[in-house]
Amino acid sequence: MDAPTTTSADSGSDGGGGWFTPRKTPDPETSGSERQDAADRRVAPVRPVGRPAPDPSGPLADEGRIPEPRSHSEPPHAAPATPAGPAGPSASAGPSAEPRPPRSLRDNASPEAILVRRTMEEVGPVADQVTSYFYALLFVRHPELRQLFPAAMDTQRDRLLRALLTAAEHVDNKLVLVPYLKNLGRGHRKYGTHAAHYPAVGECLIAALTQYATTTWSPEAEAAWVRTYTTISQVMIDAAAEDELKAPAWWLAEVVSHDLRTPDIAVVTVRPDQPYPFLAGQYTTLETPWWPRIWRHYSFASAPRSDGLLSFHVKAVPAGWVSNALVHRARPGDVLRLGPPAGSMTVDHNTDSGLLCLGGGTGIAPIKALVEDVAEHGRRRPVEVFYGARTDHDLYDIDTMLRLQQSHHWLSVRPIVDRQAHLQLPDAVREYGPWNEYDAYLSGPPGMIRSGVDALRSVGVPGDRIRHDSIEDLVAAAT
Question: For helices 154-169 and 174-187, what crossing angle results, to 10°?
C-alpha cells in the first residue's frame, strides 16, 4: 500500500510499483457505460485461513458487509486537514499515496480495535519475517503477480507494514482513516490495481499473521482482522472507482526544460499530455522510463501556471535510482509518467493569518509555490520564509526567492546557512517572531521537519496550525 515520502527528495520511501503495474488508461467514451455497479465492486470477504466459510445465518454473517464510511467534503485529490497538520504527515502526506494520519488516542477503543492492535504489537519485532512470509505466499499462490512488482522489493515490504500499522491504529477513527484510505485507493490506480486483487492480498496477509502472531491470535482476532481488512479494501476500491470517472490513472509528461542548478540539483519542467489540476503546496508521484514501476514523490515548484507546465526540484542522492536519472540522464523530449496530485500543505485563503514557511534544501520548491499562490490571490498577508541550507552553494534558488521578495512588500526571505551545525534552521526561527498568529508550513529533510515542529511548538504555535507533508516516521513529531 502506498505511503508518503519526503516530497522533494528521492529518499527511497516510495520504492516500488505499489501493488500492481499500471494498466491502460480508461477510454473516456466507454469507461462510464462499462463501469461496474457498486455491488460488483464489492470485495469478496476474506475467509479466515484454515476455516470453512461461515454459516450465512451464523454470528459472522455480516462479516463481508462494509460499514458505510462517513461522507466528507474534500477537494479533488487533497487530503483534509487533521489536528496534527494537513495530512498528519504526509507523514505524508504521505506519501503513499497519501500522508499518514496522526496517531489517534487508544482510550475507549472497541474490542475489535484492541484485538487488531494487539496483533500488530506482537508481530512488530518480527516485521521483516512477517512481510517476507506474506510476499512468499502471494507470489507462490498468485505467481502471475510477481512480474508486476519491481525487482527490488526491500522498500515495498516496508511500505506495506507501515500502511497496515496506520490502518490498524485508526480502525476506530473513521474521520481519520477514511480520507487516508481514499487517497491510497486513488493513488493505486496508477499501478493498475483492480478490485479483484484485494482478496488475494487479504488472504495472504491473514495467513502471515496466523503464522507469526502465535500468542495473540485467536478465532476472535482472526475475525476482527477479516472485517478490518474487508472494510479497508472496500473504501479504497470505491474511491478508485469514483476517481476513474473524473481523472486518468496517470498522465504522460514530456520534459521541456532541464536546468542543472548545481552538480546534483536540477529543475525539471514538464508538459503533461492533458490538463493536470493541482494546488500549490501539493506533490505528485513520478516514474521515469529508465526505472519502470519505481515511483518517487516530488513537490510542485510553482503554483498552477497558465501554460500548464509543471516544475520539480530534484536532488540526486546516493543510490537514488529515480533522482539520479532525473538529474543526470533526463533531457528535453523524454517522457515521464505522473500520478495524481496529493497532499494538503495548501494555503487557506479564507483567513488573513500570516504564513511562516520553513524550507530546507529542495524543500524550498513547495514553499515557492505557496508564495506564488498568495501573490496570485492578491491578499496582502505577511509571509515569512526561512530558507535553510548546509552551505551557500546549496541555496540554489535564493535568487528566485529574493526576486519574489523585491516584487512583494509583504514577503520576507531569510537565508539560513548551517555552517558546521552552528546555526540550524529551527534555532533561527526561534530568534524571530512571535509566531502564534501564523500558519506554519515546513518542507525539507525529515530531521529538519521533526526539529522544526518541536521548535514551533516550543514558541507557542498551536499544533493544528503546523502543516507539512512528510514521511511516516514524522508521525510521532506530529502528535
Answer: 150
